[in-house]
Amino acid sequence: MDKDFIKKVLSDSTRLYSLPQTLVEVLRITKDETSSAADLAAVLVKDPAMTTKVLRIVNSPFYGAGRQIGSMKQAVITLGLRQVTAVALSTSIYNMTDTWESIFDRVRFWRHSLEVAIAARTIAEKTGYRRLEEIFISGLLHDIGLLILENSFPTEFARVWKESRRHGNLTDLEEEAWGTNHARVGQFLFEQWQLPEEICQAVGCHHNIFPPGDSNGELLPGQIVGLANHMSQFTIGDNQQFTERFDIENREIIRENLGLTSQDMLTIEKRLFSQTINESKYLEMDIGNTEDILKEANRMLFEQYAAVESLLEENRRIQQQVAGEQVKRGFLESLKSTTTTFTRLMDNVYASIMGQAQQVKNGIQSGVIVDPKGLVDSSVTTIMDKLQTVASVTEEIRGLTRTETALYYDQQSVDAVESRIKRELEAIEEPEPVG
Question: Which CATH number among 3.40.1080.20, 1.10.760.10, 1.10.3210.10, 3.40.190.150 corresponds to the domain 2-283?
């Protein structure tokens, strides 16, 4: 029923079901192991827009070819068949879908998508997965199913999306409405386009819950893109809920399945901001200006404050519930485990936003970011100061996990910790917009 439904959705719209002819030829040549750079160049030169795009990319500072490349054949030899295919595919779908009417802010949509693509490629490099171009494409196009469902069911999709912003669990709401979800819709579309299996599988599985110790090689692309999606700080919606607990747990499971350490994750997250900005330029994707991105960082920061307050409130509720009762040690240990998971996530978010802020600081100092009035620098300094407060609050919460369980019976001790944390939070107001 799932595939029958999706096939009907796609067949009802020829613009969804068919690819541009140039891209069809590009994919055909890429699959043919006997094809050469000259074969691919001969197809691309028939498309002036694609030719211009590939030549601009190969001559950009990002690749640093060291000499001016003027022919498509030279460009394909320099970039490689799979890299050119990745550029052609991402460019075609970006241009094709960007004309569709949508409730999504497309700048936010592609900013999130590009960040996931870069994170997925970096994770693949860390884990030794060699098909980097396919992983990058998978990350960039992982949410294409959202656009397809919205294009086919605009009214119903708007209702589902709005509901998910309040209560989370978007894929569950999609399943209730259509018996499928956007990940599988995207997978099925790519299968019809006969894209590489790695791409189809990764897109279709990026919301899967993976079991601990899962080493199935066929699911590796899906785990890589799924983890990259968990790592992304730039969200599609401007009021997305804070990460659910099962998302935090799934992120940790996938990380361990892939053999990555917490330090590996922090290293990747620190570089994501600058990489996303740089690669958006050479791919000519509009992901917003520096001011937009700083506003997004402000929003993410304030969400962390809200999450801390929520955790404190939940902790107090449980304390009141169990006061005077003979509570089993296992229940309290479970509470401590939840707190540990939360503070680990807070550490990751802290490192990610601090890394992004530092990149902006560096950009101002080097002249890459023009800030004549000092507004951007002032905003970044404010963010960094408030991040230090978040780190202090997180350390207070972490202190609860290092104490003996008996502390949870001592209401005076609990109140003292909570009071110290609340005093720090009271000094934090919602960040003002930049400029």
Answer: 1.10.3210.10
